[in-house]
Amino acid sequence: MTRLAQLQSWVDQVAALTQCDSVHWCTGTEEENRELIQQQLKTGGLIELNQETHPGCYLHRSDPADVARVEQLTFVCTSNKEDAGRNNNWMEPSAARARMNELFSGCMQGRTLYVIPYCMGPIDSPLSRCGVEITDSPYVVVNMRLMTRMGNPALRRIEKEGRFVRGLHSIGTLDPERRFIMHFPESLEIQSFGSGYGGNALLGKKCHALRIASHQARSEGWLAEHMLILGVENPQGEVHYIAAAFPSACGKTNLAMLIPPASYPGWKVWTIGDDICWMRLGDDGRFWAINPEAGFFGVAPGTSQETNANAMAMLHKDTIFTNVGLTADNQPWWEGKDSNRPVTDWQGRPYDPSKGPAAHPNSRFTVSSSRCPSYSEKAEASEGVPISAIIFGGRRERLVPLVLESKSWGHGVLLGAAMASETTAAATGAVGTVRRDPMAMLPFCGYNFADYWTHWLSFGQRPDQLPKIFHVNWFRKDTDHSFMWPGFGENMRVLDWIIQRCSGKAAAVETAIGMVPDQSSLNLEGLGIPTATLQALLEVNTKDWLAEMANISDYLDSYGSRTPAALMEQCHRVTADLS
Ligand code: TSX
Ligand code: MN
Prior knowledge:
By secondary structure, the chain is of the alpha/beta class. 28% of the residues lie in helices and 23% in strands. The longest helix is centred in the middle third of the chain and has 17 residues, at 204-220. The N and C termini lie far apart (67 Å). Residues 226, 275 line the site of manganese (II) ion (MN).
């Protein structure tokens, strides 16, 4: 129950449409969470894990046909098709509503309807935004409690502000033929039917904090980005904050939780967020950023003591695992975790390597940010943190140098718009194909990419205060197919160079595609990287880059007449400098 009439009447209307048995207003309390978990243990929605090694940890097994986001069934429903852009599927709003009404009609018979008020961002921050998700999935409720500020405090803020994103979700019958994720950015609405999977069902995350928020951010003059946020503290106690966007399978969560190597005594990396960044220009001309999330919904496979010790430390308590395998003593297990052996796979079958991996490649952990050893207290600051540098990245075996600094804001926007990654085995499609993924927002930008680049370019007013923009590539390979850069903790050396560039310290060499470290300004002490390898890591091959620029130009052009001329000019200038 709420005293906000528009919220109460929407809930009443949805309850009537879905014909739910009962309505539960989520408070977000411990007690409520305990009850929801107990109830799911009874129905099999959750399975208890080893409570000695993993207190408060549970396993959820999804329907085997419901294990990932469904981009082909995800729509942006703007009144004008062009506003959604060729980067989105589009449906006319009233047609989409009619379709969804049919699906939601009577879909909660015999079920409880949960009303989840949530706040994306610190509860007292002017940068935060609220929403209400209605769902019939108790799994969604317990996950939303970890991923957002959920319950009474959020409801109080919503009642005060009177404005919130309306999210409606039902798992329906999980029929892949009757599954849709609809966004109505003009009226701040989300409707998701037929999937219980995270990105399709936890509406605060990709649907609200990226698709709806990016649309809202454009009209309000801020940015909602698919970026991690970290703080680098030097031995003098100064902290520089960095936001970074990478396509999937580049190790964003690992970078957000990086542990500086022994060669950086007294340095510390603080985690603000691992997935989403909302930022806005302050009166001081700097970008101030918050992490709208309150938890991590991370990919489990590949997470280990070696790749991400901070993540491993937080996954022993109060964590929900989805689609991982089990050891003989009921501990969660995934490929790459440790030398334990799985006995049960993610579908609950006896583990048989000939039937595939023990954990689904997209299996996940959900855990509160407060469990992360490197979690920054500044993540709770209502004013956010000031961003010194923005990093774009991609997985490229050839061509793209280890690190590159843009020559201007506009050139930096080009680096973001031209981002690309080679597909890995985990993704569908051919392995090794280069796929463009501008600002890592391809599946998440709630409006036309061409307008999005115009919006990015519009911030180039006070260039002296703006963050510097960089591009990194941890994935260069030698002719013998081995990685040239050690990556992981050693990426600290690249972050060090980036911060030094922001404070005008480190030297750089100007090339046609941007500034690269001069051979002595990147700290390589103790790495034993041969000079030839370093040269290759930082080389700019004119012939190959001319081909790349032609490809980028065609790609940007494919967005049509709305593609900003200033972006095409950046592209042409780089091409001319290469020639
Ligand atoms: O997350 C990764 N990062 C960022 C870490 C802060 N990964 C894993 C990507 C899959 C999600 C990386 N993989 C990184 C990286 O920097 N680099 C690589 C490639 C690589 C893999 C193994 C080695 C080195 C590089 N091993 C040895 O050199 C022994
Ligand atoms: Mn993401």
